[in-house]
Specification:
This protein is of the alpha+beta class. It is about 25% helix and about 35% strand. The longest helix has 11 residues.
């Protein structure tokens, strides 16, 4: 068996969990020898975009380094809707007609959400409290309020159409875009729910250099290995 070690950037499609991608990759590369495989930076099933897969023990040892890298996302937020998960996969808690909002108001609100900010962690998140993920507490009817300090470097490509806001955001590791959606809704006097998300960059790694998930599913193992980058 050929020893395999390195980093495989994959462009995940919506509908797949990050765990699904890892399990599939492990299976299709089973003809190669590697001790461990894992990812660095979970993407929710609703989201698409860059997922960095680490292959081999020496690669997975560097997981913390990759987790700490800055990120770039393309986000879409729907105003007037609040869900329990702060994205469209959650249960709708409240819905109201969206007030008349201008692009200038959106940009001014985002300015107040730039730099080092304290943002709420979604109740339905993998953040652990007392040994359990927050989503496990939430499923048991206990919503735990926690905040974390993150850094938002900049927003760009900001647009507003009807009740939908779109933008690109560059941010530090640990930023929940669902939380930015929730906060933005509040600042605009309504509700905000994340309705689409795509991760386009992690540190120096860009989506244009990633293996599309559909290509991964259709390719032979020896062709997939060509996408593996050395560390």
């Amino acid at each position: 068996m050929t020893q395999l070690l390195g980093l495989l950037p994959i462009d995940k499609t919506p509908g797949w969990t990050s765990h699904d991608v890892i399990a599939y990759t492990r299976g299709i590369l089973s003809t190669y020898e590697f001790s461990r495989i894992g990812h660095c930076g979970t993407l929710d099933p609703m989201a698409s975009g860059l997922l960095l897969v680490l292959i081999g023990r020496e690669a997975t040892k560097k997981q913390a380094e990759f987790l700490g890298l800055d990120k770039v996302y393309q986000a879409q937020i729907t105003l007037g809707i609040l869900t329990d998960s702060w994205d469209m996969q959650g249960f709708i808690l409240k819905q109201e007609p969206c007030p008349k909002i201008t692009l200038k108001q959106v940009k001014e609100a985002l300015k107040t959400m730039t730099g080092k900010i304290s943002h709420p962690i979604p109740f339905y998140s993998a953040k652990k409290v007392k040994g359990q993920a927050m989503y496990e507490h939430a499923r048991n009817g206990v919503n735990i309020k926690k905040e974390s300090v993150v850094e938002i470097y900049k927003y760009s490509k900001i647009s507003l159409k009807d009740n939908i806001i779109s933008f690109e955001v560059s941010c530090s590791s640990g930023t929940y875009i669902r939380s930015l959606a929730f906060m933005l809704g509040e600042k605009l006097g309504t509700f905000g729910t994340l309705s689409a998300l795509r991760r386009t960059q992690i540190g120096p790694y860009k989506i244009k250099d990633a293996l599309p998930l559909d290509t991964l599913r259709k390719s032979a193992p020896e062709d997939i290995v060509k996408w593996v980058k050395s560390l």
